[in-house]
Amino acid sequence: MDSLWLVLLCRSCERAFGRQSSSKDTTCPHCNHTDAKVLSRHHSAGEASKAVSVANTPPEIREQLSTWMNQQSNSTHSPEKSPIDGDHILSKSEDKEGYVTLESLRKVLVSSNIHIDAESFAEHACSEGQLMRAGVNRWKRP
Question: What pLDDT digit, counting tens, does each position of 26-57 carry?
């Protein structure tokens, strides 16, 4: 079972801080007092961190900050990317003679839904010894 995260409010300095619910320590990291009340409970450290930020913001701008944080998390939230198999990309880009062209590389990257500039990919592959330049926008695998 995953641990809950608590957002606590120090009764002495009135600043919010977070702790795992399993933690027995309720010492405020700001003033070192142990008298705190629970403001909210969260299922992840990230959610608790956002709640602490909002709680420690002046009331006049809390709503603005909360809205901004939600917009930021929505715009930056994307599924975790898996590593790119460069060798596979290069082998799919090769023609019958073993050459890779900028256009063939671009097509394979697009069809694989990989958003990388084909020329940059080729330059990186050259620097790693995976491709050798064989002409303008043309490479050969060693």
Answer: 899 889 999 999 999 999 888 898 889 888 88
58 and 90 assigned to the same domain? no
CB atoms within 10 A of CB 64: 10
CA distance 34 to 89: 57
- Number of helical (H) and strand (E) elements in the chain, helices listed first: 5, 6
Structural domain total, the chain:
2
Tokens at residue 85, please? 């198999």
Residues contacting 50, CB < 8 A, separation 6+: 69, 73
Pair 18, 10: CB distance under 8 Å? no
Q: What CA–CA distances, in Å, run from 15 to 88, 110, 118, 122?
A: 53, 50, 50, 52
Strands (E), the chain: 5-10, 16-20, 36-42, 99-101, 132-135, 138-140
What is the extent of the structural domain holding 101? 86-140
**Per-residue pLDDT reduced to its tens digit, 87-135:** 899 999 999 999 999 999 999 999 988 888 999 899 888 888 889 999 9
The length of the chain is 142
Co-location of 30 and 9 in the same domain:
yes
